[in-house]
Each structure stands twice: as C-alpha cells, then as structure tokens.
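re: that chain from earlier
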Amino acid sequence: MAALEIRELECFLVLAEELHFGRTGERLYISQSRVSQLLRSLESRIGARLVERTSRRVHLTPFGADFAASLRPAYRALADTVEQARAVARGARSRTRIGFQGAIYEQVTRAITVFHERNPGHRIDMTEIPLSDPFGALRRGEVDAAVVLLPVEEPDLVAGVVFSQQRVTLAVPASHPFARRPRIGAEDLARIPLIPLDGPAPDYWKKVHSPTATPEGCPIPQEEGVQTLQEGLTLIASGRGAMLLCGATAEYNRRSDVAFVPVSGLPDSALGLVLPRGREAPRLESFAAAISETAVRIPRRARESPSPRMSKNTRSSHAYQKR
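^ sequence. v structure.
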C-alpha cells in the first residue's frame, strides 16, 4: 500500500472511459503528456501493459479491462468515504444520490420516506438521468445508485432490488388507428415505425426497449433516434412514430396528442435499483431494504421464466424486462 498512487489510478480510470489521452487530460485538468506519464508509472508499478495506443485508436488490453473493472468499485468506495468524512467535518448531513429515468415512481418515493424516517441524519437526493444512458451517471460517480429499466448485464454493476412489474404500452399519435383500439398484439409493431433510443446504452439493453423485430421475426421500421423521453413524446405527437413504454411511465406522461395502448404478447417491464458490484454501502443497503418493503417485488420464478412467445434472441437478452 505504501506504493499506491491515487492520481495514477484516477487517471487510468478516466482514460478507460474516454479512450483518448487528450479528453482524459481535459477532464483531469492536466496535460496530455502528464496523462502518458501517469499511465507509464502505473504500468511499471503493476508490471503489465494496461493500454494499447496507436496513431488511430486507444484501447485497453485484456489485462487492463479486467483491472479497470476490479478497480472502479474500490475507487468509488474510497472516494465516498472521503466525501462522507468531509461532510461530517462540515457538520452537514450525509447524502446518497439516486438516479432515475423519466419519472420518480410512487414505489420509490414511498421508499425515500421510509428511509428518511429510519435515517434522520441522512438525505436521499434524486437526479434524473437520460433514458438512453442508464449506467453512465453511475459509472462516472455522479450518482451512487440508479433506478433504471432492466436488464443489467454489466460486469461492474448489479441489480440490488428488482421491482415494479408493469404492462408494456405503445405510445402512438392520438390520430393513429392504433389509438382507437383497446390493445394491440406484439406482431402489430411491424406496422408502425418505432423511435429508438440513440445513446451509449448497451446493445442488449436497446434491443429490449427498442426492438428491431417482432417476437415472430418480422422487421420493425425504425425512425430517428432520441435520447430523452420528452424528445420521443414530441416526435410521437407530431406523427413520426411510436415508442414502447412501461405502464407507469404512460400514466405519468398522459397528454391529449399521444395515446398509450397496451401491448399483448410482450413480457412485462421491470425496474431495478442498480448498484456497483462488490461495494459495501450500508446506506444503499438500507435504501434497497426500504424499496423491498414498500414496492411489489417480482417473484424469482417470474423473472427467470421467459414468455413462450418470445423469440430466441429476445430470451437471451432478459426479455422479461421490457420498458
């Protein structure tokens, strides 16, 4: 531990995200040459190459990728410990930052109330994160945990609590023929363009929430992508296409120019409180326990048994968790 240099570790983690020496330097307010110097020092200290750099691209070595995945939660825990100590020293309340997508669901607000009753010296702060980037704010340290639409299949993240099973609906223009129907089937999705989520979300996550084919394999037309829910609703209202949304999101966003039609033949959606894997955080565990007590959790059997109508590709992407 005597040889541990925090600045080297911080520089490496930022470089692992940016894969660009110049942008890494900008984020850390240091020169590009200083980034290279810190990386060489860390590689020398460890005894292995972490990054491969050519004239055209920068990428992590397999060893570097494994090291970054193992280092990231430990670094976050250390940073949180220092921040909490600073808060105590200032006499301020300690805080936990929770990200959310689209809307703060009723189950979450009830959990926040329960948490505050049990932890009067601690505060939960809610921060909205882009619908198209469920994990970015968590990885950048902007939030401590995030309530997001599942699935999550990340090596450094885990869904601590899975809850809020909801029926999937299709948001369509109020003038569209689907708007006059009590429900549509999953195969009907091939008859209207879907507005995809255009952002850094993993491909497996996008396939669940913005599918390009029906369960029977029929292609689904694709419109211009969006990054936020409000962008998507605006395009829908103007007649550009449709989006798949969970039932709760539909309820929170009722408007006269958009109709929300239930979709049969698709698995229900699910939310998860996503946490850094392997990180001990008593406050997050307390908040997760509050959600478990106040929200309707999804039985394990329901979460693990895919719908018989789902396609092979959908099953492989945890397709029970649609938006």
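The radius of gyration is 22 Å.
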